[in-house]
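Checklist before submission:
- one chain only
- standard amino acids only
- sequence pasted in full

Submission:
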Amino acid sequence: EKEEKEKKEKEEQEILDSIQILPPEKQKKLLHGVQQYFKEMSQFLVRKHDELQKMKRIHTKILNTKGELSPNSIAEAERLRKSYDKLLQGVSSLAELLHLDMPPLPLDESEDQNGEVNVVNIGFKEGSGEGSIWDDEDTRSFYEDLPKLKELVPAVLFEGSGGGKKKEEEEKEE
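Returned file contents:
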């Protein structure tokens, strides 16, 4: 595999040497400039990656506390994700053309000790929209919003079960 890569690089270099559009001095300057550009873009990619990971952690906390994200947060996340994807594609293409390695992108720090990663889908509010397990709002409400039976069933039925009032008093004390 490595031999094939070296052979391919050698063939590409022979083709470039035969063309001679620029003199060797200018080729070196141009190559140095492009490599410097790759280095700068790699650093920018790592910063954007960190920013994206930080935003994911914040969104996870918000989802865990409030249960939903604001439309502005969702739009901002999508905008940042698209920008990051384009940047990643550009840097990876440049790395391939220059035969350089991609910069290491740090893993998300929110991974559990077991190696599990919390996945957050910020595309829609749970229980609504496309991909929901419920057909409509009434079905979701039927299964998720449970009524309190003590409010709906007459107290006489609870007394017949053997000390319903005593159990209620014990529950209140606890």
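Reviewer check: The radius of gyration is 30 Å.
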